[in-house]
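User: Teach me something about this protein's shape.
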Amino acid sequence: MSLSQRIVEDMKTAMRSGEKDRLQVIRMLKSKLQEKQVSRRAEEGPDYELADDEALQVVAAYAKQRRDSRDQYREAGREDLADKEAAELALVEAYLPAQLDEEEIRKLVGEAVAESGASSIKDIGAVMKVLMPKVRGLADGKQVNALVREALGA
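Assistant: First, the predicted structure itself:
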């Protein structure tokens, strides 16, 4: 079952069980997936269906939005809204693969630095170019960037 199909099935289940908060988040995810699919159909033709990796990118982007919103609410002292965003984020993250821990990311950063031949912070772009395809959807980009900067001595 594709990620898009799983989201549709989960939406039906949430409707039947009356889980309003969960249903709202899943509907938003489905909407984001449909937006992406419609834009891709304009390029690829009317029969185009999103591949799982594209759907995963959409879900990851939505999770990042929720994460950023949560952090902004916390900075503003709005714990009630931050908690709501955190709950929505937990629902969205259920559709993402397990995230890499810091140790695993550090290992991949080391491999990417070696592969790209980077020696200074000026080479961060080359390292990120090698690294991001390996960690996309599996790690937060901000964390990856910070670890790359640390590895390059910034």
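Now, about its shape. The domain at 102-151 is CATH 1.10.10.410 (Arc Repressor Mutant, subunit A). The helical segments are 3-17, 20-44, 52-75, 79-93, 102-116, 124-135, 141-151. If you'd like, I can walk through any region in more detail.
User: That's plenty for now, thanks!
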